Amino acid sequence: MKLNIIVIFLLITGSVFAQEKTLLSSNITSTGWFGAPVIKYTSLNEKGSVIVGARGGYIINHALIVGAGMYRLVSNVELSANKDIYPINYDNNLHLMYGGIEFGYVINPMELFHYTFNTLLGVGNVSNNNIDGFNENGSDHHTGKSFFVIEPSAAIETNITNYLRLEIGLSYRLSTGLNYTYISNKDLSSFIGFLSLKFGAF
């Protein structure tokens, strides 16, 4: 079911870009840019979590977007650990960051309310201070594990001013390639509700 949703999102984005090829092959009539703080609410390791970040991009003909985004977990998501080895009060929280390139398309961008579609393709890193133990001096040492991420999204956007837009939407983060003891690709893959405030020259 989740894989089908990912495929549908990718097909929508792909078909939009296919349509845009004709537009680009004729003339680029306008270009712009935007930047946006983003807040996301999702599930990680079956726990409600908040992720914050920022994204930005280059806008072609008011509709086609090529950009990038970076996001970081700010909620405390505790992972299992061996209490016989690690102190009870030791940091046992998940540390997560991910980001990558983003491709998007805006339908009817001049309308007050309109739809946006976006897909992030990138990499992430997870770590936990407890999983690799202690060195000879009693200090912790840990190595993060990397994974690939695909995050398609769909949103409703409203034009607040000529230079400011509010976007509310739903995405799905698909994690793959992670080989980590205390959290799996399944634990990292989840639906996301997000809100972003975009400013720029649209």
Distance between the termini: 35 Å
Total strands: the figure is: 8
Overall form = elongated
Q: How many individual helices?
A: 2
User: Helicity level, as a percent range?
Assistant: 10-25%
Strand order of the largest sheet: 1-2-3-4-5-6-7-8
Uncertain runs are: 18-25, 131-141
- The class by helix and strand makeup works out as mainly beta
Which sheet architecture does the biggest sheet show?
8 strands, antiparallel, barrel
Radius of gyration: 19 Å
> Roughly what fraction of the amino acids lie in strands?
over 45%
Domain count, please report it.
Answer: 1
**CATH class division:** Mainly Beta
Average pLDDT works out at: 84
Question: Would you write up a description of this structure?
Answer:
The chain has 202 residues and is mainly beta. The chain has one domain: Porin (Beta Barrel). It is built from two helices and eight strands. The protein has helices spanning 2-26, 185-188; strands spanning 31-44, 47-60, 64-73, 95-107, 113-127, 145-161, 164-176, 190-201. An eight-stranded antiparallel beta barrel has the order 1-2-3-4-5-6-7-8. Strand 1 (31-44) and strand 2 form a beta hairpin. The longest helix has 25 residues, at 2-26. The chain starts with a helix and ends with a strand. Mean pLDDT is 84; it is low at 18-25 and 131-141.
From the structure above, extract its key features:
Porin; mainly beta; 202 residues
